[in-house]
Design goal:
Fumarase C, Chain B, domain 1; 55% helix; two-stranded parallel sheet; Fumarase C, Chain A, domain 2; two-stranded antiparallel ribbon; 488 residues; mainly alpha; 4 strands
Length: 488
């Protein structure tokens, strides 16, 4: 299915999901092409009829060269050059889904003519989504005032294949499509990862035989929080149909009792990222940008802006990163509590296993130690992503860098730690149910089957590490898949 863009409101998070993860393609409607053509004509009329007009990057140089005035011949020559110099970063690369998301977000400035890009160039950008492999874009070294270092990597080859006119190259590398795409990618990832985390943590709560009162429906109104209410409902749904026998006679440790509140916090953070991404996808972030025509400017007016700096995205991504670290803490604590019979009231020697007595049973006692490592690593990433404390590496005007790639990279790494911690907890929880002869709740049977796939019989015929890693990869396939998990 090709997504047809008619106006900015067509750039939605659902469309971003289809393009970035399901591989859908994009084209402009005939109306949008007409709008872009008319905007381009107004732009050229201004250039051809107002010799005194100042348009950054068109009648002047870029960056520290903005003070240099270009005559008509100079501006045409200036326009022909592809943005090679800013492609100065290197290192770890962003995945293909993120590059597709950036290209999709790039189209917001084009579809209603705001960037006055040549329609043929705009269509060539959309057609990049027909490709299965896109140019490499580093995730590191992105310390520019805007996003030109990453966007230059993405579009320099395209520029070399086209005849560029005034402002075309600038329209490709200015604005904040990276901040939009990275926030959108974070929102989509957080949505699916939250569903996976809820399943594993609910399995642990059932394995611990936690009192069901900890997740009672009455708490939804008492806590007065829609996100916590979602978490309470989700946990009850996932645990429904578990063991019918007597539950634990007194309250569970704090890690189990605050589970709905920490899951609720994660749900709030994911929702915030979704809101910011939704706003950003339909926003015009070009610099300079063409404003609507008015009495004083019958063909429109160009102004320079800071739209290329998405300040909301890093804050939303940091919030998601923090919830990943908190969920890692819960996963590690639950590992330890399930293995400790004095706390869990379960037969700890059977849950942990006893490799000396029965090698077939497998020893899981060291898994909590591994979970601690993932927890501590996630905590390292959960620090605020602030504006740079010193002047950016750019010259002259470029004195503040954009931190969007730093924020996204930290949430990616913290999310991987959470996936590892959850994969560590799942076999411990499943062992607890197995040795006490309790059934897995129906909603968690697929998770249990995947766990047994990775660790058949929950034994230790092979080292646990690689098998836990295989389970983590199964969970990550769900997190990054093209299916949106059923999460109300």
């Amino acid at each position: 299915m090709t997504i047809v863009l008619d106006r900015r409101s067509d750039l939605t998070l659902d469309a971003l999901h289809l393009v970035s993860r399901a591989g859908e393609t994009v084209c402009f409607s005939d109306r949008a092409v007409g709008v872009m053509t008319a905007a381009r004509e107004r732009f050229m009329h201004i250039l051809d009829n107002d010799p005194d007009v100042t348009i950054y990057g068109v009648t002047s140089g870029y960056g520290q060269m903005a003070k240099v005035r270009l005559d008509p011949a100079g501006r045409r020559e200036h326009a022909r050059h592809a943005p090679i110099a800013p492609a100065a970063s290197w290192g770890e690369l962003v995945p293909e889904r993120v590059k597709r998301a950036i290209i999709f977000a790039r189209l917001a400035n084009f579809v209603e003519g705001n960037a006055v890009i040549s329609p043929g160039v705009a269509q060539a950008v959309a057609e990049m989504l027909d490709q299965t492999e896109l140019p490499d874009v580093p995730a590191r070294g992105q310390g520019g005032a805007g996003e030109i270092l990453s966007l230059s990597h993405l579009f320099v080859d395209l520029c070399g294949s086209l005849e560029l006119a005034e402002k075309d190259a600038l329209s490709l590398v200015n604005g904040s499509p990276c901040g939009t795409a990275l926030t959108g990618d974070t929102a989509l990832t957080a949505h699916n990862r939250l569903h996976v985390a809820a399943e594993v943590l609910a399995l642990a709560a059932e394995a611990f035989n936690a009192p069901l009162g900890h997740f009672d429906q009455a708490l939804e109104t008492q806590w007065n929080n829609a996100h916590d209410a979602w978490a309470l409902r989700t946990i009850r749904t996932l645990m429904a149909g578990g063991a019918n026998g007597p539950r634990r006679p007194y309250q569970a440790p704090v890690s189990f009792r605050i589970l709905p509140r920490i899951l609720g916090q994660a749900h709030r953070a994911a929702s915030w990222a979704r809101d910011i991404a939704t706003e950003s996808l339909a926003a015009v972030t070009d610099n300079p940008v063409l404003l609507e025509a008015g009495d004083d400017h019958p063909f429109g007016e160009f102004i320079s802006t800071g739209g290329f700096h998405n300040a909301q995205g890093p804050m939303a991504m940091d919030a998601v990163t923090g919830t990943y670290a908190n969920l890692c803490v819960l996963a590690e604590r639950m590992c330890a509590k399930l293995l400790d019979g004095a706390v869990s009231l379960l037969p700890d020697n059977l849950i942990a296993g006893n490799e000396m007595a029965d090698v077939r049973q497998g020893y899981l006692g060291c898994l909590a130690m591994a979970a601690t490592g993932y927890e501590e690593e996630a905590r390292l990433y959960a620090q605020a992503t602030l504006l740079p404390g010193a002047e950016s590496g750019g010259f002259g005007q470029n004195d503040v860098a954009s931190p969007v790639f730093l924020a996204w990279t930290k949430q990616e790494k913290a999310g991987e730690c959470l996936d590892m911690a959850l994969a560590t907890l799942a076999p411990i929880a499943l062992r607890a149910l197995k040795v006490t002869d309790r059934r897995v709740p129906p909603a968690l049977e697929a998770l249990a089957a995947a766990t047994l796939d990775a660790l058949p019989g929950l034994d230790n015929a092979e080292p646990n590490g690689p098998r836990i890693a295989a389970l983590a990869e199964h969970l990550r396939a769900r997190v990054y898949g093209d299916v949106i998990e059923d999460l109300a």
